[in-house]
């Protein structure tokens, strides 16, 4: 209620906040770039002390902290000093479950440029990135934005840390000799599967620039190097690997044509009976609808892709020629679809 007794209705509050939601994303990005979470230790600290530590203007840092505290990122004590919350701790670099690079990735400069074109993309149903930059998103990232590419690779590893153990629990690889992780990023998931299954050998396939920065455990001299092969390549062009299990996690969310092309390349390379495991966040199976629908729209803008519904993903898998598709949960927000490479017709 305002001073003159006027009641501000919830829809008004909701829409005013939504219209300025970019400020929340900008604030958390600023905190990550300033290293604010690393500067705050276990003892409460005031804005002036934190400002000295991160080389910022004290009054303005106080304003940033106040804005972040509204979202539960840092908390203000009655004495005006700040302490960590669960969310602010995840912005620290030294925490094993850090999400700092995921925050940076979701707020990279190219994202702000793309959001402004969302209405256009909704009209055309197409990505806007290629039109704005004259080339595909991943090509541009590696050719012109190496810093953003590095943030992306680290963010994917941070994201995989959240789910790799659950996936290893859910995936029965007993008696399986070989697995290939297609577009497997820097290989955190593959390394987890190899550690969990001592008889397993694995190949990491991703773009050459990504594979060259693979997880140290998979690199020559690493603990798993004897059972790992690193392969730079383009899975839309060819998947030159024979394996018992083909894993595709969070890659078949680009345009549908690339999805079917990639899966057909699997069918071409694999022996009949090989298992194909697709892991995705499904829009109709998500407890985090705000995150999943936001990613769905961002994927539209950058790669002309989407987060799938269960039926939509199964239909693309079948269109590519795979059979016996079965959907199972991996954890609270990821599903896997297991299918089989059929006998050749
Ligand atoms: C969303 S990330 C997922 C990474 C990993 N599977 C995970 O779940 O953490 C998509 C990955 O696809 C890779 N990628 C993009 N285009 C590719 C292509 N044409 N061939 C192979 N990998 C590609 C990217 O480099 C990136 O590592």
UniProtKB/TrEMBL annotation:
It comes from the Bacteria. GO terms for molecular function: O-methyltransferase activity; protein dimerization activity. The keyword Cytoplasm does not apply. Keywords: Methyltransferase, S-adenosyl-L-methionine, Transferase. Residues 115-322 form the O-methyltransferase C-terminal domain. InterPro entries: COMT-like, COMT_C, COMT_dimerisation, SAM-dependent_MTases_sf, WH-like_DNA-bd_sf, WH_DNA-bd_sf. Residues 26-91 form the O-methyltransferase dimerisation domain. The keyword Methyltransferase applies. One of its GO terms (biological process) is methylation. Pfam families: Dimerisation (PF08100), Methyltransf_2 (PF00891). SUPFAM superfamilies: S-adenosyl-L-methionine-dependent methyltransferases (SSF53335), Winged helix' DNA-binding domain (SSF46785). This is CtcK. It comes from Kitasatospora aureofaciens (Streptomyces aureofaciens). The lineage of its organism: Bacteria, Bacillati, Actinomycetota, Actinomycetes, Kitasatosporales.
């Amino acid at each position: 209620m305002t001073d003159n007794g006027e009641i501000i209705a919830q829809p008004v509050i909701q829409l005013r906040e939504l219209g300025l939601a970019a400020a929340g994303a900008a604030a958390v990005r600023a905190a990550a770039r300033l290293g604010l979470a690393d500067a705050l230790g276990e003892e409460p600290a005031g804005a002036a002390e934190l400002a000295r530590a991160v080389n910022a203007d004290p009054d303005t840092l106080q304003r940033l902290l106040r804005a972040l505290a509204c979202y539960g990122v840092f908390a203000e004590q009655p004495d005006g000093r700040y302490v960590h919350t669960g969310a602010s701790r995840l912005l620290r670099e030294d925490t094993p479950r850090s999400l700092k690079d995921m925050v940076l990735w979701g707020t990279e400069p190219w994202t702000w440029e793309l959001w402004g074109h969302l209405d256009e993309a909704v009209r055309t149903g197409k990505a806007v990135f290629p039109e704005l930059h004259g080339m595909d998103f991943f090509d541009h990232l590696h050719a012109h934005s190496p810093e953003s590419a590095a943030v992306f690779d680290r963010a994917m590893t941070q994201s995989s840390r959240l789910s790799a153990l659950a996936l290893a629990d859910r995936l029965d690889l007993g008696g399986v000799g070989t697995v290939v992780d297609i577009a497997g990023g820097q290989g955190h998931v593959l390394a987890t599967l190899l550690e969990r299954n001592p008889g397993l050998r694995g190949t990491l396939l991703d773009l050459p620039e990504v594979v060259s920065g693979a997880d140290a455990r998979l690199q020559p001299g690493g603990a798993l190097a004897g059972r790992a092969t690193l392969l730079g390549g383009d899975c839309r062009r060819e998947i030159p690997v024979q394996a018992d299990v083909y894993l595709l996690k969070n890659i078949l969310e680009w345009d549908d044509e690339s999805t079917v092309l990639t899966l057909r390349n699997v069918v071409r390379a694999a022996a009949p009976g090989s298992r194909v495991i697709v892991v995705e966040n499904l829009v109709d199976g998500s407890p985090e609808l705000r995150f999943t629908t936001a990613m769905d729209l961002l994927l539209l803008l950058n790669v002309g892709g989407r987060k799938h519904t269960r039926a939509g993903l199964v239909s693309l898998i079948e269109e590519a020629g795979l059979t016996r598709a079965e959907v199972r949960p991996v954890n609270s927000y990821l599903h896997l679809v297991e299918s089989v490479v059929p006998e050749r017709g």
